[in-house]
Queue: 3 jobs
Job 1
Amino acid sequence: MTFWLVCIVLTLVVAAMIVAPLLRPAPAATENPDVVVYKAQLAEIDRDLERELLDPDEAERARTEVARRLLAANKAVTTPNKGGGGFVVPALISAIVLGISFYVYRSIGAPGYPDMPLQARLDASAEMRENRPSQAALEAAAPVPPAVEVPDDYRDAIEQLRVIAPTRPDDLEAWSRLAYHEVELRNYAGAVAAQTRVIAIKGDAAELLDRQRLLDLMVVAAGGFVSPEAEDVINTILRLDEGNIAARFYLGTLYNQTDRPDLALRLWRDLVETGDPNNFHVASARAQISDAAFRAGVEYALPETRGPSFAQMDAASDLSPEEQQAMIGNMVAGLANRLATEGGPAQDWARLIRAYGVLGDQDAARTVWTEAQQVFVSSMRSMEILTNAARDAGVLE
């Protein structure tokens, strides 16, 4: 209610400032002071003529000149302002100002949106974080990755390993191989279970990379979300290495997913500005930091990335088919190499997917699309960009 009262008062003040000049009374007409002087000069000429100080011809010439000046001065007399005294126009202007103000706010503002103090927002974020689904629930709800084409004998061998490994709970080699091959088959939930067992077998000898690999797998298996169990792994890694890039990236992801983009931006900005751009987690932070900054109300722009633009792609349409294929092929090779070594934002991955579609290489486009999903699965905006590119390239219905 206080907000609306303030808006109404401010709008009325602005309207009053606009119409106040129209309500002022019209000033009275004022006589040009030159008129008085010229009238006095005419009277002086008549007196000089009576006293014979001027001859009649000279007096007539002087009277004619002064009369001309008097006529000109009369035309310059200030006229009254006719704008004062009326209330129709000011009232109409006030109504228009008030109407437009409230219409615009109702259209693009947030009428009826409840006040949310900072503490209430922090509490809501904490509640969201506290009530996150478990790792198992997220894995069950995660989209099924595209099937991987492998030889039947390879798939049969992995099926046998899935049966054998549980019978050997302390066989580190069996569980390590199972974790690796589950990833190859895109069975990320199975890879999480196998990698968890690897760490359990190693115990205190488990390396930081083992836990980092588990964290990667848990987030991918959960569809890009950071579960409470994954958060526990993050905390364990940070206790061992407070500057660990992977843990800091996923902690930022957790904040970003629980309505704290300000904290996500703080973590990711440090990674983006000081980390190695070739690092997977730094590249992932780079791809999502602009969205987090926007939601946090902070202006933050990444340096422009290199690579072929859509304008360059369009320019290829004016070339012959052979020249077009050669031009696009060179651009695609450069872009693919950069993304493989340096990473890049979702827009660049989308360009690569579309470029492979133009070249007719559906397998390559599908492979890039699959890899891009793993990188950007936690960003809805990035996934929308990539999904549109996959449709354009013909690898997604």
Job 2
Amino acid sequence: MGSDDLFKKRHAERRKKEHDFKETKPDSFLIVTEGTRTEPNYFSGLKRRIEEKYGSTVDIQEMPEIDIRGEGMATERLIEAADIYVSQGKVMYQNVWLVFDKDDFPDFDEAIEEGHKRGYRVAWSNQSFEYWLFLHFSYSDSDLHRHEWIKKLSELFNAYGLSKNGYSKNMEDLYDKLDSICGVETAIGNAKRRMAGFVEGRDKPSEYSPGTMVHILVEQLHSYLKEICNGS
């Protein structure tokens, strides 16, 4: 056996041992996002809220492991990045989620299918994550360009007094602002209503506009809070 082959064999054996000794945590999430600002800020806000709750509780209940990675990559490259995080992660993630938008990417459907083949969940949005954010305020099934959703969000952020400068992609407290108006529960309900007719395997996400599956991930994480927003 050549030196290169021997090196590859030992490397593979070492990686297998690392994998075998990883801790398995049922409540573990890896969230890999296409964006580097909006999506990570939103999910980081939700993660922070969960950590605040579990950090102050006297109940003996393990805090979920939530790792968020904003990659600035799209579709196929994002899947490759997720593969690396899964293989190198300190735990065996039980829930791996990819978060990306259709935008103008031609391989949108193929990337979703490939992610599913690898056992990942995909929180996709068509056209953009801003549609999911809009659903925190109101229901809509209008097929609008992503720039229109951004414009509508700016108007709503002003109207609700959430920001004097309107909506911005780099809001670090994005989740807290939307949750302050009980928007998270509203968004989940609106998304379920919109996606009620969508059938996986029959309907193409690229042709389902507007559409989003972000609510499935958010609802899964939001369940750790077990709170009912009353607007107070």
Job 3
Amino acid sequence: MKLSDTWFTAFSEDEAGRMVTVLGRDELEEFIASGKYKERVEVTWRYDSDAEGDFPGERLAERMEEVEETLRWAMEKKDKLAVLTGVYTGGGERVWVFYTRTARVFGERLNMALVPFELLPISIYVEADPEWEEYKDMYEMKAWAAD
């Protein structure tokens, strides 16, 4: 399976009505159809928003990008243990959504990948999602973004 690096951007709102930027990955049909990626892992980094609104300031956004690149490399490059499918930013948090073959190994690899960083204010949520329901819901935003 070839992993695409094609993304789309859409906008949504959180429960409090604050704007959330959605970065969604396209062309994942083979991964969904494979049936191998049955668990969804959400890595959430909560932050204090900047004076401009509900988004991270420039320095924090750069740190988040560095963490994202590290996690993508650790999860995708070697053996495609997990696939980053979406990134939600706004309302005081950034959420990276991965689909993985095994959450246990994902957690071990995440810990190893983040060793070079200081302790990060992240939380991890895992849920069985063999039908990729969260991804499909997010993917519907692509059509809205095109309109």
